[in-house]
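#onboarding

Welcome to the new folks! Below is a worked example of what a typical request in this channel looks like: someone posts a single protein sequence, and someone else replies with the predicted structure as tokens. Don't worry about understanding the tokens yet, we'll cover that in week two.

Example request:
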Amino acid sequence: QVQLVESGGGLVQAGGSLRLSCAASGRTFSNVAMGWFRQAPGKEREFVAVINWSGGSTYYADSVKGRFSISRDNAQKKVYLQMNSLKPEDTAVYYCAARPRGDLSVRKSDYDYWGQGTQVTVSS
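Example response:
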């Protein structure tokens, strides 16, 4: 089993930046894809970004391309989401997710482990 804990959320003005962190514990993360999803009240949880921990490849949702960047530190079992040029539409609870023995996926159902989420609020 894998435990995931997100941190780094908060309140920021439009145009500002935040960096989210996801700390993993339990089993090793070799060949594990790590993703970020977000969910606003009353809306479906949506894909944000994913990174392949085996090869370092990344993929982003169209809505965040050019603004967000996902990175990893396998030695510390951490994944990050750097968020720049934040917009009010980015306001949501952000979740870290893990997909053991898998590659890049945008589908929520493909991920086996989830963190508790961290709130990001962007004011105008």
